């Protein structure tokens, strides 16, 4: 959810390697899992990341230009290309955020560069493949990138919320059905004026509606208000599903490039700001 310059998200994705708040410096070099040439980042990044075999996977993050990006699970709906198009850089879905935040300052700059990469449905270094779509935010607004029809398609996200599958237009259509509207055009006023019962349940369509209602009826404007919402949609830890729970909350102040990382198992919150992180080496905060 994006509101009043803040972005809040829960990380519910179930990989077994732990998530940590991590800093990557400008000039950081990394290898895409496709085996393509090494990428050299232009921007410093602060985000929730996993580390496996010497490689970082970013679940979300903000860079020193104030560009924010987060991945959300997009099974069934995602269609990636099978092979890398000639003359483009090949990336897996898991590589994509590091390329977005490491190489671009704005959404417009990223949009102009999308044709120069091919995202293929291939395994990452841990031997797994994860389909994603992505939430983006900069000073110009909130956007989504979705891999449909084999290509990456970027569009403005007027709802300013995103969850897992289905795609944004389908999520808005379902929300509109709840509001007595038709089509896929988002109507903020209709959401603001909604006085019906809040949707219950934990699937991604319901969570999208919960987030949209909170975004436009309550309009969280402080870190505490954003954290209250994240608590309300947290998936609790269950021993029957050892890794399928909310691993962390993130609340990011994009304007200040400040990131609050809260571990949902330990309850510890770590706050760091890119303005004070200038060192040449990667740092994992625990």
Characterise this structure.
Belongs to the peptidase C59 family. One of its GO terms (molecular function) is hydrolase activity. Keywords: Hydrolase. This protein has an eight-stranded antiparallel sheet, with helices on one face. It has a five-stranded antiparallel sheet with strand order 1-2-14-15-16, covered by helices on one side. It has a two-stranded antiparallel ribbon with strand order 4-5. It has a single domain, classed as Penicillin V Acylase, Chain A, CATH 3.60.60. The longest helix is centred in the C-terminal third of the chain and has 15 residues, at 204-218. 20% of the residues lie in helices and 30% in strands. It starts with a strand and ends with a strand. Strand 6 and strand 7 (55-63) form a beta hairpin. The protein is built from six helices and 17 strands.
Structural class estimated from helices and strands: alpha+beta
Kindly provide the name of the CATH class. Alpha Beta
Q: What is the general shape?
A: globular
Number of strands: 17
Whole-number total of structural domains: 1
Largest sheet: 8 strands, antiparallel
The CATH topology is Penicillin V Acylase, Chain A
The CATH superfamily bears the name Penicillin V Acylase, Chain A
Read across the widest sheet, the strand sequence of neighbours is: 13-12-11-8-7-6-3-17
The CATH architecture is 4-Layer Sandwich
Which runs of at least 5 residues are low in confidence (pLDDT < 50)?
Answer: none
Rg for CA atoms: 18 Å
Strand content: 25-35%
Helical percentage: 10-25%
* Secondary structure tally, helices: 6
Mean pLDDT across every amino acid position: 93
Distance between the termini: 25 Å
The arrangement of helices and strands along the chain is: EEEEEEEEEHHEEEEHHHHEEEE
């Amino acid at each position: 959810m994006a509101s009043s310059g803040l972005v809040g998200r829960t990380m519910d994705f179930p990989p077994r390697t732990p998530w940590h708040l991590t800093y990557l410096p400008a000039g950081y070099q990394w290898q895409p899992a496709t085996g393509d040439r090494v990428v050299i980042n232009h921007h410093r990044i602060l985000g929730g990341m996993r580390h496996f075999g010497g490689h970082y996977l970013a679940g979300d993050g903000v860079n020193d230009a104030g560009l924010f990006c987060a991945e959300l699970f997009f099974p069934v709906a995602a269609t990636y290309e099978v092979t890398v198009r000639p003359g483009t850089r090949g990336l897996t879905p898991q590589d994509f955020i590091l390329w977005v935040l490491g190489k671009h300052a704005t959404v417009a700059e990223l949009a102009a560069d999308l044709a120069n990469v091919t995202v293929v449905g291939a395994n990452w270094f841990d031997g797994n493949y994860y389909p994603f779509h992505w939430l983006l935010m900069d000073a110009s607004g909130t956007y989504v990138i979705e891999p449909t029809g084999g290509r990456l398609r970027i569009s403005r996200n007027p709802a300013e919320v995103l969850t897992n599958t289905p795609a944004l237009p389908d999520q808005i259509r379902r929300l509109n059905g709840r509001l007595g509207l038709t089509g896929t055009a988002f109507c903020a006023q209709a959401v603001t004026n909604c006085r019906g019962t809040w949707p219950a349940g934990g699937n991604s369509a319901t969570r999208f509606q919960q987030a949209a209602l909170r975004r436009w009826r309550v309009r969280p404007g402080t870190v505490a208000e954003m954290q209250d919402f994240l608590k309300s949609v947290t998936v609790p830890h269950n021993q029957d599903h050892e890794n399928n729970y909310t691993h962390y909350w993130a609340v990011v102040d994009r304007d200040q490039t400040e990131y609050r990382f809260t571990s949902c198992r330990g309850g510890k919150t770590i706050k760091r700001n890119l303005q004070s992180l200038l060192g040449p080496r990667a740092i994992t905060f625990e």
